[in-house]
Structure formats: C-alpha cells, structure tokens
Amino acid sequence: xxxxxxxxxxxxxxxxxxxxxxxxxxxxxxxxxxxxxxxxxxxxxxxxxxxxxxxxxxxxxxxxxxxxxxxxxxxxxxxxxxxxxxxxxxxxxxxxxxxxxxxxxxxxxxxxxxxxxxxxxxxxxxxxxxxxxxxxxxxxxxxxxxxxxxxxxxxxxxxxxxxxxxxxxxxxxxxxxxxxxxxxxxxxxxxxxxxxxxxxxxxxxxxxxxxxxxxxx
Length: 217
Description:
- By secondary structure, this protein is an alpha+beta fold.
- The protein is built from seven helices and eight strands; from the N terminus they run E-H-H-E-E-H-E-E-H-E-H-E-E-H-H.
C-alpha cells in the first residue's frame, strides 16, 4: 500500500445545528437536506472530471487531489466552486487546506493531511473563508508570486478568494441574503461572520453590504 501526498481541504458547514432544527420544525420535510445533497452531487460530478475526491459526513466535507504543484490552482478553483454552490443554497462554510500524506479507499480514510486541514479550519479560519496553510503557501509559491485566486488578510493568513472573477449580477442576491440573516442573529459570533462576508464582498465586488459600525444612542 502506497500512501501518497495530496492537497486536502476540510470544510465545515456553518450553522449546521440551525439547519437540523429547521428540518425538525418542518417535520423533516427534507428541504434543507435536498439543498445540501444537490450541492454535493453537483460537485461530485464536476470534481471527478478533474481527479478530485469528495467525501461528506453530516456537516464535514473532505476534498482531496493528489499533489502536483501545477494542480494547486485547479484544486482551489474546485473548492471555490463548492463554496459558491453552498452560498447559492443559503449556506456558509469555513475550512482549511493542507498538503501531506493521504489515503482514502471506499469508506476508509487515513490522512495526516486531513488532521492538518482540520486544525487550520478549527483554529484559524474563524470566518466563512477557507484558509490555506502556511506550508502549502511556502511549497507552492516559493517565489511569493501569489495568484489573484488567493487573498491575504490583515492577520497574515491566505484564504481562497472565492468571489474572484464573479459577476456581481449572479452572486449579489445570495450574499445579501446571507449577510442579512447573519446580522439579524442574536449570536455575536454569527454577526461577526456576516460582517466579515459583507466586508469581503465589498472589497472584491465593490458592493455596499457592510453595516455602519456606529449609530446614535
């Protein structure tokens, strides 16, 4: 058995408890499940054409592709597509990308790369972004010539610039709905995620979603 090196992304769907609760409130009508399944099946079909694997268990998604430096752009473009499919169904996600040994066959997975990607997602992503580990950045871009499909934030982390190249007319309404839903929340963490998405959209697409920070008492 040969364990090869892969790019691996670990994705977590945000607010999954709320999604399950919506299902319960509707008597498990399947509306939310169907949205998630549609996104998964669309990506599964596309990914297989490009040599990517996708595994989903509940709110956890693992996307992998055998490591070749030249295939990094294709890999993150595929992850970006998944993020946008989720957004169009009304879901946000966050994640981490790593590179290391990875083995997957049928329902069996052995993967130091997955462990690293999970650590990036759980410890660094915070907002609805997919953060690329420093190890991947250093390995793929030793010349520090970064592509526009990556975005660097003030915290020094690179994340997949999933709105890059998007037409505002095709994605604006989905972002607006998600931002508004987050800002209506009484959960401070959810509000901050909505503000982050608004700031990011305003930066990339020149929208005007960021709320005013102050108001009269």
